[in-house]
Amino acid sequence: MLVLGVESSCDETGLALYDTERGLLAHALHSQIAMHQEYGGVVPELASRDHIRRAIPLLRQTLEDAHVQAQEIDAIAYTQGPGLAGALLVGASVACGLGLALDKPVLGIHHLEGHLLSPLLASKPPRFPFIALLVSGGHTQLMRVDGVGRYELLGETLDDAAGEAFDKSAKLLGLGYPGGPAISRLAEFGDPAAYQLPRPMLHSKNLDFSFSGLKTAVLTVVKQHGSNGANICEQDKANIARGFVDAIVDVLVAKCMTALKQTNLKRLVIAGGVGANAQLRAALDAAAAKRRYEVFYPELQFCTDNGAMIAFAGAMRLREQPDAARKEYGFGVRPRWPLDELRPPQG
Asked: Phi-psi bin for 81: left (phi > 0), alpha (psi -120 to 50), beta?
């Protein structure tokens, strides 16, 4: 089965073709980072307009790279939510319009399910069941994953997610947008002993997260310098960044190890944009090796939003429930869509 995936939930436009026999055939991605940088964050109206401009050229590129004709597509999967309403509507309209034109069935996919399943695209994919740490944008969640659609929420963010804390703290340091990669790179040059920032909920008796206090601690340190982040010397910025990243990593690693111990599972999967963080990967690898756990990551190109994960998630659902995609082209989107509302495919 050949599935086209369409992703447009925020500021990346992604198209991909996944074949259940041959694997990922091609994918194309356009990031809007350069456009949003001058505003310090994503502007929803601009994001929606850019998706409109990019979707069809990226579709043509994907078909050409895969050496596939549009009529060969068996089904079309698109991100139905969660995300920015206007951006989601662009992808949904493209997918459903194409489905109508080609007389092909369409299937709405949960964006976070795409991230959860993206490590299965790797050359050495994990086997079910596993614990998944989902760290994507406004989401930080620990899930038990027993199969496609079989997800149990173990812990989640109570306020700021890890990704939000990265971006907000980077902004306090004058690092611009997107802040996550910038603060991580800067942290590599920092002194780990310079700032001991709080580890929120590190010793709580649950698997929930809270990072707003850490962001506030960064703000307090910046104010102690008597200036805004742009005027702090580069070494001090690096030291603050190192203290911040070490605090986030310590909490995430500790919660992951606790989740594995409590469930008696041996496999941990990391999904989402923060999963690309080099410090987090190194710390998780070390902690897992010590306890004889296995850790799996998506390929770096699939950590951020992309069409490949949507095509793959669609293919996995259709493998278990071939009639999940339908030739019904009136569409709606779900900007807010809790992952625990998903149900397993009914084969």
From this structure: left
